[in-house]
Structures are given as C-alpha cells and as structure tokens.
Amino acid sequence: MLTLQELSGRFAGVTWRGRNSFQAKCPCHDDRQASLTVSDGDRGIVLYCHSGCVTENILQAVGLTFADIMPQREKPVTKGRFDFQNVVAEYQYRNGTRKLRDRNKNFLWQHREPGGSWRSGRGKADHVLYQSGTPQQTIFLLEGEKDTDNLASLGLFCVSAEDGAGSKSKWHSTYTEELTGMDVVLIPDNDNIGRQFAEDIAAQIDPVTKSLKVIDLRKIWPDLPEKGDVSDLIQHYGKDRAPDLLKDLEAAAEPWTPFTVTEKDSFLSCFKPLTAFEEKDPEWLIPYRMPKGQIVLFGADGGVGKTSIAIDTIAAISSGKGCLLDDSNVEREPLLTAFLSTEDSVSQKLKRKLREAGANMDNVICPDFSADQSGLLRDFKFGTEKMAGFIEHYKPALCVFDPLQGFTPVNVNMGQRNQMRDCLAPFIGLGETYGTTFLILCHTNKRKGAYGRDRIADSADLWDIARSVLMVGYTDKPGQRYLSHEKSNYGELSETILFSIKEGAIVDEGRTWKRDREWQEAGTSPNSAPKRHDCKDWIITRLESENGVMKIRDLEAAAKDEGFTAKIIRQAKDELKEEDRIYYRSVGFGNEKSWMIYLTD
Q: What pTM was computed for the model?
C-alpha cells in the first residue's frame, strides 16, 4: 500500500490540507479547480472527485489499482467479510455515499463525514437512484450498478436502485419521484425474482412516468442463461451490435399495462390472501356426523342397510324431521335433497320406500335413467360439467350417490392413487358455494381383519377427501347392525349407533362407543374361511371398481389376497355365471391371448 506522500507524486496541482489530506487535479476530466480530495481513511486511502469521477478510473489514469491504496491483510477474505485488499468496483451516489464491491461480490456502503473522511454505512443520506451516463428523456432502469455502468457506456442514460431486485420494500418512494415525467425502459434480469420485481416496480412507477416499457432480453438472446443480465448480453453480442439490438427491442415493445386476469387466466382469480376469507365455525347438516357443504363417505358390505339409512336420512332432511343419525329429537327446516341411484329403480322401489319413510316428495330430486333414451345421463359423472351444472341449478342441501361406482368416470381407476381425489375435488368448491353436503355410498372389501380405512382400501382417496366417514356392519346380535363414526375433520367422533331393519323400517336400538375395528375383529376367526356369498359380493364389487372387466388370473390373485380359498373362488364364479351376472371372453392371439372376466350389462 502506498503512503499518502507517495501517492501525491502521481497527481498535479497538489495542495496539502494538514498531514492526512491533499487536494489535486483529477486526471479523468479537464480539472482547473483541483476537485480531487485524497485523504487517509480508517481502511485505506480515499479518493473523492467532486465532479463525480469514479475512483477506479482515477487510479487507472495514474497507473494504480485499489490494491495500491488499501491496507494489506494477512488472511484471505471470503464471502461475508468485505475484502478491502481486493476492491474491484466503486459506485458513487449523488447523495454523498458510495458502494464498494470486492472480488467475492461482497458490498460495503460508506458515507462521508463532515470532515471529508469515509465511514461505514449510508449514514443519514436520502435514498436515491444510482445514475450513469448523460441525462436524457429516455431512462433505462436496471437491477444493479454494474449493468447500469455497462449499458451507459453504450451512450444510454441508465439508473438502478441501491439494493437491486428482491422484495417491494427495496423500492423507495424517492426513486419513483426521480422517474416522474420520464420515458422509462425497465430491463429485469433473466430470473423469476427479476421478472416479479419488474412487475412490482412497474405498477408503482406507471402512474408518474410519461411512458413505461418492460423488455425481455430473451427476445434478443433466446439462450440467455438463467440469471443472465444486460452485461451478459453486451459481452455476448459486443458493444457494436448490442446497442442496436436493444434499441430495436425497445422500439418494438408495447407500453406496459397492469396485469389483469383475463378469461384465459381466470383460474388466478381463485387465489386470494387470507384476509379475503371469512373465518367461520363449522356448520352441520346433521350435527357432528354430516358437516354442511362437505363430502361424507358411507361404507358398508352389501345388504347391510346402506340404502335404507340413506332413505331415512333423505326423508328427514326433505321433511324437516329427525333421523337415525340424529342424537336427539330435532326439528329442522325442510330442505331440497337429491337421490342419485344407479342401482334401484325410482318407480319400482325408491319412491315407495321414501314415501313410507315420510319424505316430502316435492323436496327429493331423482334422475330418470329409464327415460334417458339418448344417453344424456351416461356421462353424468363425478367431476363433469353436467354434475356441476346439476348442483348449481338445484342447489340441494343433501346429494346422495348410490353407489360410488355408478358415478365414477369410466377412465378413472378407483385403485389408482389420486384419480378419485381429482374427480371428487370439484365438490369442495360446489359445497362451499351452494352449501350442498355430498353423501357417497360405497361397498367395503372382504379382507379378513380389515377395519376402518382398510375396509375401503381400493379407493383410499375417498377416505382422504371425505370430511366425515361412517361405516356400517353387523354386531354379534342376530339382525342388529352398527353405524360407526370413523372420521371427523370438524368435531369429535360421535357414538356408534345400533339399529336393525324390520319390514323395511329403521329401528334405533341405542348407542355404544364400540367402533368398527372391535366389531370386525370380534367377527373374524383365523380358522373360519370366508363364505361363498361373501366371495360373490367381493367379485362383483371388484369388477365394478375396474370398470366391469379384469383378467381372470388377476381377479383370482386379488381374491386370494382377500383370504378366499381357490375352492370358494371357483364356486363363487360358477354361481355368478349361472346367474348370468358375469361372463368370460378371450382377447388377443397366440402368446398374447388372455382370458377376461366381465360384468354382464
């Protein structure tokens, strides 16, 4: 490091001001007033040209570098600690501050004290934009000082904020004031932070600028690297060609307009800050067992009484009375319900059962599948526009689907993770909007020892997306069933309901805290093989979940996994074939030939 005395010999017009400072003529401009101040600072010699010349250029003009005026350090400096020995750039601001950059891209702010010496930090200086180049009407706004100097060297007037891109808080109101009435061209770096910062800043300065454009450097250089900037573009195309490319891009750019959600991007309007949401307590269609506007799953083996309970519930909601799922006598407002069933005929069975259960027949909507001669209801499935249109039009308080398979799209595999979730997801928004509760009836599997979630393992997405899950099965008392509340996202689990069905009517037989697991484990013996009719039910349910067709060997393997013996499986298939509920057919030829099992239409 040179001494102050040694350094003075490099300049003309030297006048000493004490032992630690002198004035001299700046070699970077036609200096007739000795406008360069050179003084000893806390961390080296400080050069300050009152006409704004850059220290790096001053040193270069007298054959020196920053290393000649900075103290030597014994230890190398890495990222995070400023390396005064290897300062590679100095950026002078108009408010009397400067920013230094070392070889490791560390930055240090300094401000000038009244006596002329430099101190760390910005001090009390106002926030101003960094400027480079001769002032003009069109001003180029960049992210950093290096880009600003490099682009200004091409004859343009450029500015940048003190702290580059990042959060909105880095942009100060004084910057906006400086750009008032200017034609501004904003050039972000090629990264998401830069592009978002550009949108944020453009929104702030647009009201005060004469014109505003935001240009994308990738339109000049499609292969611009990630985080690439205007300095990279200048280096790539050279100083002779880059200016014309930038001017052509600026001329072709459309004036910036505030981002608005178009019809094409209407999904963005679905996203809001938490402050826009109303905080609500859970509402109930049936307290604790059926949350209003949510999906409720109702799983049971075939013939246990799912449809009977559904009818009892629909009758109660439609007429304003209590039902089995209520824990006490209730009176409610009669509400519109929808019973969507693909298993039972409305005319031959459901209407009579609903009437006998006390339903308000005007408050129950059903599809007339028998009258659909043109197939309009064929694609009336979960996740379709027809389903959404139906809910939007009728706005039922309760919509019952019996069974799940009847409304699952043909291209959805119930066993495939997330497919059921995707087609049921629209119910979340529809339920929130119209207050509709969706009750989905589904068959359970026959796996030995399975209970709760595992009993509907072929459609685990159902369990996950449902806010409440009810499971039905038999107790150890002849003819008695249980209805166990297995999942509740909005409240505590309710007691298990005991009931029976006599002459088609639901009979309430009390409450217990015994759950599905206990009933299932109590009814399972390691020495008792599953019954043939259980296997038949399982085969039908599995085929329904596979859209009505499987390879025979795959079905048999899955049945064995459920605990059925080869003999029981063979007997069950034979009976189903005799009943004309299934049939076999070969597909393919030669080595590709496979035997398939089909559900009879």
A: 0.48
348 within 8 A of 409, measured Cβ to Cβ: no
Examine the domain organization and report whether 355 and 390 are in the same domain: yes
- Asked whether residue 593 is assigned to any structural domain, the reply reads yes
Q: How far is CA 445 from the centre of its chain?
A: 34
Classify 340 as helix, strand or coil: strand
CA distance 84 to 106: 10
Query: What is the C-alpha separation between 598 and 41, in angstroms, rounded?
Result: 91
Strand order in the sheet with 158-160: 130-132, 158-160, 138-142, 183-186, 211-214
Q: Sheet holding 44-49: strands in order across?
A: 15-16, 21-24, 36-41, 44-49
Phi, psi of 91, rounded to the nearest 5 degrees: -120, 115
Burial of 578 (0-12, 13-18, 19+ CB in 10 A): exposed
Same domain membership, residue 387 and residue 245: no
Domain contains 372: yes
C-beta of residue 138 within 8 angstroms of C-beta of residue 189: no
Burial class (CB in 10 A: 0-12, 13-18, 19+), 391: buried
- What's the number of domains the chain is made of? 4
Pairing status of strand 138-142 against strand 158-160: parallel
Question: Could you read off the pLDDT of 308-326 as tens digits, one per residue?
Answer: 999 999 999 999 999 999 9
Q: Tell me the per-residue pLDDT of 192-240, one tens digit each, with 9 for 90 and over.
A: 888 888 888 998 999 999 999 999 999 999 989 988 999 999 999 999 9
Residue 21: give the domain boundaries: 4-120
Structure letter (DSSP) for residue 349: I
